Amino acid sequence: MSHVSLGLPRVGAPGEAVVDEDDPGRATGPLRDTFGRVATDLRISLTDRCNLRCTYCMPAEGLDWLPADELLTLAELTRLMRIAVMDLGIREIRFTGGEPLLRRDLPEIIAAAAALEPRPELALTTNGLGLARKAPALAAAGLNRVNVSLDSIDRAEYAEITRRDRLQDVLDGMAAAHDAGLRPVKVNAVLKPNLNAADAPKLLQYCLDHGYELRIIEQMPLDAGHDWQRSTMITAAQTRAVLGEKFALTKATEPRGAAPAQRWLVDGGPATVGIIASVSEPFCGDCDRTRLTADGQLRNCLFAREESDLRALLRGGATDDQIARRWRASMWAKRAGHGIDDPGFHQPDRPMSAIGG
Ligand code: SAM
Ligand code: SF4
Q1: How far apart are CA 357 and CA 354, in angstroms?
Q2: What is the pLDDT of residues 279-333, one digit of tens each?
Q3: pLDDT digits over 242-290, tens only?
Q4: 152 has which bridge partners?
Q5: Which of 30, 44, 129, 323 is 20 to 30 A from 174 (CA-CA)?
Q6: What is the pairing mode between strands 289-292 and 297-299?
Q7: Residue 161 in contact with residue 195, Cβ under 8 Å?
Q8: What CA–CA distance (Å, rounded) separates 46 from 322?
Q9: DSSP 3-state assignment of 55?
Q10: Which ligand has the minimum distance to the alpha carbon of residue 276?
Q11: Is 98 in the pocket of ligand 2 (CB under 6 A)?
C-alpha cells in the first residue's frame, strides 16, 4: 500500500521528514512542515459557545465556557489575520466555532478579513440558527460561502442529534444564505447508526431539490464524552452504500487536491455529493490547514496534543515577526497524520466545539 493511501504526506517516504538543515521554513516564508506540506487555509474558531448540543460534539450539559477575557478580540483577530495573509501566505479563512453566529462582531471580523491584500476567500461553518436574519449582512461584509451543518430533514431525528428542536430555523437559514448569494451552500452531515443514517438519501434529495451541495463526514473521536467507537461509526463506504440504494454514484474525475471530500456525481451529474472519509481513508498527506482556537491557541492539526499560545504573545507585546515565527515553528512540528489508528492514540482534551471544526 502506498503512503498516499494511508493519508500520509506525499513528500518523502512514509513518516519520513523532509531534511532541511537550516530549517528555513521556520524563519521566513509560508507555513511549511517537515513533510513538505504548505498550510494556506486558516480555520478560526470565534467562540466555544453553542446553541445546539450535537451528541458527537458537545455534552448535554456541564461544559464550562471560556472566560470572556480569554477570547481574542476583534482587534487581536484582525492582527493575526493580517500576519497570516500578508506574511504567511494564507489564502482562505474559514470562521467556525462553537457557533460563530453567536459572535456579535462577526460582520466586523469578516469585513476586516475582506480588507486584507491579497484578499482571502472567506467561508463560514455554522449550524444555521439565526442565519436567516444575518445572511445578507454577512454577504455584504464580504463573506463568500457557507457550510451549514444539518444531519437530517426529519424533525425528530434532528432534535435527537442536536438535542434541540430547531430544524425549521436551519432550513430557513440555508435558504437565506442561498438567496444572499453565499453559494454554493454546502451542507455538512454526520451519520449515526439507527438514527439518521438510513434517511441520508432523503437529505440528499432535499439538497438536490434546493441546489445545495451535501457533504457527509465520518464521525471523528472529538466528542466531549470521549465515547466515540470506530465500530459504531458510519464509514464512507457505508455512506456510499446507503446513498447507492436510491442514487447512482460515480466518482468525480477532477483531482481532489487538498479538499477533504471525495465528490461523487449523482445520477450522472452535474449535481454531486461529497463523502469525507477522515477516519477510514485519511487525507492528512494533502492537509493544508492551520487552526486558531477562540482563546488564541494555535493548533497544527485537529488532533494535535500541543498548542502554541499566540494570545500570550499578542498580549505580551510581541512583534508581528515574533508571532509569525511562532506560527511557523508550530506548523513545522506538524505530525504526518492524525494517528487515530495508532495504538497510543489519545483523543484531544478539547472537544470539537472548543477546537473549531
Ligand atoms: N457550530 C458550527 C456547525 O455546527 O457547523 C461550527 C462548528 S462545528 C464543530 C463544525 C463541524 O464539525 C460541523 O459540521 C459538525 O457536524 C462537525 N463535527 C462536530 N463534531 C464532529 C465529530 N466528532 N466528527 C465529525 N464532525 C464533527
Ligand atoms: Fe454546536 Fe456545531 Fe458542535 Fe453542533 S457541531 S454542538 S452546532 S459546535
Answers
A1: 9
A2: 998 889 999 999 999 999 999 999 998 999 999 999 999 999 999 999 999 999 9
A3: 999 999 999 998 877 778 889 999 999 999 999 999 999 888 999 999 9
A4: none
A5: 44
A6: antiparallel
A7: yes
A8: 23
A9: coil
A10: 1
A11: yes
Cell of 276: 469525507
Residue 154 phi/psi, 5-degree rounding, is -90, 125
User: CA 72, 73, 75, 77 torsion: positive or negative?
Assistant: positive
Query: Do residues 121 and 104 lie in contact, with contact meaning Cβ atoms separated by under 8 Å?
Result: no
188 lines ligand 2 (CB under 6 A): no
Share of the chain above pLDDT 90, in %: 77
Q: Residue 127 Cα, ligand 1 centroid: separation in angstroms?
A: 8
Q: Report helix angle 200-210 to 167-179, nearest 10.
A: 30
What is the Cα–Cα distance from 333 to 32, expressed in whole angstroms?
A: 9
Tell me which H or E stretch contains 274.
Answer: strand 272-276
Range with lowest mean pLDDT among 7-11, 101-105, 126-130, 227-231: 7-11
Q: Which ligand approaches the C-alpha of residue 233 most closely?
A: 1
Amino acid (1-letter code) at residue 321? D
pTM for the model stands at: 0.93
Of 250, 220, 248, 214, the C-alpha closest to 233 is 220
The answer to whether residues 84 and 118 touch, using CB atoms and an 8 Å cutoff, is no
Give residue for cell 478580540. Answer: 73
**Side-by-side strand order, sheet with 308-309:** 249-251, 262-266, 272-276, 213-217, 186-190, 145-149, 121-126, 92-96, 41-45, 289-292, 297-299, 308-309
Give the HSE-up count for residue 41: Cα atoms under 13 Å, Cβ half-sphere. 15
Cα(260)–Cα(283) distance, integer angstroms:
7
Residue of 323, 315, 312, 355 whose CA lies nearest to 31? 323
Taking CA atoms only, the protein residue closest to ligand 1 atom 27 is 219
**Contacts of 345 by beta carbon, 8 Å cutoff, 6+ apart:** 221, 339
All three cell numbers of 45: 474558531
**Where do we find the cell 478539547?**
350
Q: Which pLDDT value is given to residue 2?
A: 33
Q: What are the structural domains, with CATH classification, of the chain?
A: 24-355 (3.20.20.70)
Report the atom number in ligand 1 closest to the C-alpha of 353. Answer: 9
